[in-house]
Design a protein that fits this description.
single chain, about 325 residues, alpha/beta, 6-stranded mixed sheet, 3-stranded mixed sheet, 12 helices, about 40% helix
């Protein structure tokens, strides 16, 4: 029987559950998903010149990013102790990164979607492409019937239909990884839960299997109020790019206000920026080989086109500092 404290904890809105799967033996003691990806990798072999260039860009944008303040009651870091991950620590952890043969990010819809939801999927795919600099393919949707009964439940509080994320990540997505896939992320409008004491999650990504899932279920109705679509879009972009960060072996950020922060509620998610902090952006620059200035320019343009003015302003300031640092 759970204690009252456990019930309160499990009722929190848990956003992004970082999964550090234990490695299994595959000759060299590396998870087979990692071995398969890195066996023909050429893009990201150690390159001190390129790492130095990434660090120069980090320092150029660092003054624009805020150090995290003390966690508020109910925040992720008030609930979970996490060490964080610097760029140097990321390089040392044998991270997942694209290879010459596996560079695509695949998005797999699960269920039936309205025209508005299909628009959100298309915009999220476009933003993911600009954020990570890799080709993005939206695959044909799977019907909800593809989820077996043992991966479904009715939530203890409220009776909401939920899908177990651990089953999606391990049993559905990993066996379906396309040959050209750096990662495969599922998208659904059904609520999610991770199969443990948490009541639900907004999304979840594996740091080793290159698979993950996110849901629109708790992000609000796009037609509820003026600006509701923009709010739903911002939440979707944060969640999808955050979960993909885990698929690139990125852990939660605990130093800066950053898209890789963990969050326990929509209120906390809305406080966190869409942007990645200098330490976490550096991981993307290094892993994908994307030009930081080009990335800032294209992301800023996207945000300006879709009403994300605050996000666009930060990206423009980053672009100015990156450009000045390269003169």
């Amino acid at each position: 029987m759970r204690t009252a404290i456990m019930l309160i904890t499990s009722a929190l809105l848990l956003a992004a559950c970082d999964r550090n799967e234990p490695r299994t033996d595959n000759g060299a003691g590396i998870h087979p998903a990692v071995s398969a990806l890195q066996g023909d990798a050429t893009l990201n072999q150690p390159d001190t010149t390129r790492i130095a260039a990434v660090r120069q860009c980090m320092e150029a944008v660092r003054p624009l990013h805020r150090i995290m303040g003390p966690a508020r009651a109910g925040d992720w870091l008030a609930t979970y102790h996490e060490p964080g991950q610097t760029f140097a620590e990321y390089l040392a952890c044998e991270p997942i990164f694209p290879s010459d043969a596996r560079r695509a990010i695949h998005v797999l819809p699960i269920g039936r979607f309205t025209a508005t939801q299909r628009r959100v999927i298309a915009l999220a795919a476009e933003y993911i492409h600009l954020c990570y600099g890799l080709p993005v393919a939206v695959d044909g949707a799977l019907p909800s019937a593809a989820i077996p009964r043992n991966a479904r439940r009715r939530a203890p509080r409220g009776g909401t239909l939920q899908i177990r994320t651990s089953w999606i990540i391990d049993s559905l997505l990993y066996p379906r990884l396309p040959r050209d896939a750096m990662s495969l992320i599922a998208f659904t409008d059904t609520d999610l839960w991770p199969g443990d004491d948490m009541n639900f999650v907004f999304g979840q990504g594996s740091t080793r299997l290159r698979t993950g899932v996110w849901s629109l279920f708790r992000f609000g109705s796009p037609n509820a109020t003026r600006g509701a679509f923009t709010q739903l879009l911002a939440r979707t972009l944060k969640c999808s790019t955050h979960e993909l960060g885990h698929m690139f072996s990125m852990l939660h950020c605990t130093r800066y206000e950053c898209n890789m922060n963990g969050c326990n509620s929509l209120e906390e998610m809305d406080r966190h920026p869409l942007a990645f902090c200098p330490e976490c952006a550096a991981k993307i620059w290094w892993a994908t080989g994307i030009d930081p200035r080009e990335r800032c320019a294209t992301l800023a343009g996207f945000c300006e086109r879709h009403g994300l003015a605050q996000e666009a302003a930060l990206l423009r300031m980053e672009l100015n500092r990156l450009t000045a640092s390269h003169r």
